[in-house]
Design a protein that fits this description.
alpha/beta; Aspartate Aminotransferase, domain 2; two-stranded antiparallel ribbon; globular; transaminase activity; transferase; pyridoxal phosphate; cysteine desulfurase activity; PyrdxlP-dep_Trfase_small
Length: about 375
């Protein structure tokens, strides 16, 4: 890639791709440098173990639940094994279901479609758009984000107390994709339980950094995405209580979701599956699901080492940023608390888009700028 293509909107030609994916990148000032990818919160790179597992599986890739051939049997086993891996990774209850989706956004939209009629939904207005926007109807309560975690718990309690009778759902993120701050998930889930409400946890930003347990946190649903978990192959998951999902109209209509289709004089009659297949119409993304499962196994086996490494990196980053004149780190809460390694900041006198472009073009540092799909929070 030449200097003239830096910042270009044109797609690099194939021979340029290795320069982007390699360990060194060109600089507009001349020469090259080792690339520092600090944009993992948006999409994390593929783990080597995930890449190797995908490469090993690809020769056996075939249809899942759709063939008697050996490759189809292998693919079916790989697909269903992934479901059990996700159950373990999220501490699912015995009767919880695991539904594979495209990503977290897809999973939350599926859950929104499955809510019983007149369900009240409570959430903070600073949520990522994937969690903020799918909910419809007059009983959606979007709470302005409080300044402390304790106030967040109290705000949810007040909102639930004011909800009309009927099903209730609290939707909350585990960790902010903007600031890395975590929310008091267990405490909010306990409040929800006292009010007869269920809790859906958007764990897209939490699951890559901390163990997430449906039973440990006492939440009802967890959603996550492979591309945040070092498995960028287009798979996500919704894990949680099966009853609402079993009773809901299938998310998509098509093959795989049906048990039987018959001809009627007025059209066709359909008997839908009642398990996770009900919401997994179409040929599944077996490769993506396999990659997601392998990534979850890798993370689950190394939590202590990962936490220590991330803590050291975060401490170094925040100390360095604090020494920059005019730099302000963004925060949702005034109180200190647990957080992931995600940090956002502004710098006096510098437009964020320009600053991120300079970091990339002149220093080989990849960061993200903008509103991070959380416009109200930013």
């Amino acid at each position: 890639m030449t200097d003239s293509t830096i910042g270009s909107t044109e797609t690099p030609v194939p021979q340029d791709i290795p320069a982007v994916l390699g360990t060194r990148v060109p600089l507009v000032t001349g020469g090259e440098t080792a690339y520092a990818n600090l944009d993992h919160a948006a999409s994390a790179p593929c783990l080597a173990a995930v890449r190797d597992a995908v490469d090993a599986f690809l020769p056996w890739y075939a249809s899942a639940h759709r063939g008697a051939g050996f490759a189809s049997q292998v693919s079916t086993r790989v697909y269903e094994r992934a479901r059990e891996v996700l159950r373990k990774f999220t501490g699912a209850r015995d009767r919880d279901t695991v539904i594979f989706t495209r990503n977290t956004t897809d999973a939350l939209n599926l859950l929104a479609r499955a809510l019983p009629r007149h369900t009240s939904v409570v959430l903070f207005d600073t949520e990522h758009h994937a969690a903020l926007l799918p909910w419809r109807g007059p009983n959606v309560v979007r709470i302005p984000a409080p300044r402390t975690r304790l106030a967040a718990v109290a705000a949810v309690e007040r909102a639930l107390a004011a909800c009309p009778a009927g099903p209730r759902l609290v939707v909350l993120t585990g960790a902010s994709n903007v600031t890395g701050e975590t929310l008091p998930v267990a405490e909010i889930a306990a409040v929800a339980r006292r009010h007869g409400a269920r809790t859906a946890l958007d764990a897209a930003q939490l699951a890559p950094h901390r163990p997430v347990s449906l039973t440990g946190l006492d939440v009802d649903y967890v959603v996550l995405s492979g591309h945040k978990l070092y498995a960028p192959f287009g798979a996500g998951a919704l894990i949680g209580r099966a009853d609402w999902l079993r009773a809901a109209t299938p998310y998509l209509a098509g093959g795989g979701a049906t048990k039987a289709v018959t001809r009627h004089e007025t059209g066709v009659g359909v008997t839908w599956h009642s398990g996770p297949e009900r919401h997994e119409a179409g040929s599944p993304n077996i490769v993506g699901v396999h990659a997601l499962a392998v990534a979850c196994e890798q993370l689950g086996a190394h939590w202590d080492a990962l936490a220590a490494h991330e803590h050291a990196l975060l401490a170094r980053l925040r100390a360095g940023l604090a020494a920059v004149p005019g730099l302000a780190e963004l925060r949702l809460f005034d109180d200190e608390g647990d957080r992931t390694g995600t940090v956002s900041f502004t710098l006096d006198g510098f437009e964020p888009g320009w600053l991120s472009a300079v970091l990339s073009a002149e220093y080989g540092i990849g960061v993200r700028d903008g509103a991070f799909c959380a416009h109200i929070a930013t």
